[in-house]
């Protein structure tokens, strides 16, 4: 009988230590040097185990601070399938602050095609989600002037923009389409720096109204270091078939 690879043994040992209360949720793990000595493994083996623990949502890494046991939370187990802002269900660390601003832009072929307009200016709304570690994520939203009027958005008021993007937009939406990919955009092209060093995950969301019109396009940029989301799936019990 073959034994499990060493990285799996380390993975299981850390899980056991959490279950037995030797490692506490929210607590920082010992340094990699201490863990290597304790488990008597190579740096590669240890980092493989830690990577798997992060993949499985057991650990959270904070750049420059180390690895932490993920805290248990009381949030709903709903995933991003519900029609609301996906950002709070896609971060492994809490948001404590926001930076909000907007830009008025000249007409573009892209937005004319996106919103079925002709030579019409548009707005971009920005929210940078932050905590003490820095910028956790950026939401770049594209909307048209008539949406600003319809939702009575005060563009000079950060709270009004936040209320629209996080709540009002979804309360009046009929559906949205969300695409998740790895962004090819370089971090250095953003005006503000993100936490971590990993690639950026891009969630592109088109939000539609009752008449099928596109109300907004949101682009959420989230460093992979702090990104984790869930999509709950269920069996199809009824299916319409074309006859």
UniProtKB/TrEMBL annotation:
- What Pfam family is a match, any one? GntR
The organism's taxonomy opens as:
Bacteria, Bacillati, Bacillota, Bacilli, Lactobacillales
Molecular function (GO) terms listed?
DNA binding; DNA-binding transcription factor activity
For this entry, the protein name equals Transcriptional regulator
InterPro entries given in the database record = Bact_HTH_transcr_reg, Chorismate_lyase_/UTRA_dom_sf, Tscrpt_reg_HTH_GntR, WH-like_DNA-bd_sf, WH_DNA-bd_sf
Keywords tagged on the record: DNA-binding, Transcription, Transcription regulation
- Biological processes, Gene Ontology terms: negative regulation of DNA-templated transcription
Is Aminoacyl-tRNA synthetase tagged as a keyword? no
Output the CDD domains linked to this UniProt entry: WHTH_GntR
HTH gntR-type domain: from which residue to which, for each copy?
A: 4-72
Query: SUPFAM superfamilies annotated for this entry?
Result: Chorismate lyase-like (SSF64288), Winged helix' DNA-binding domain (SSF46785)
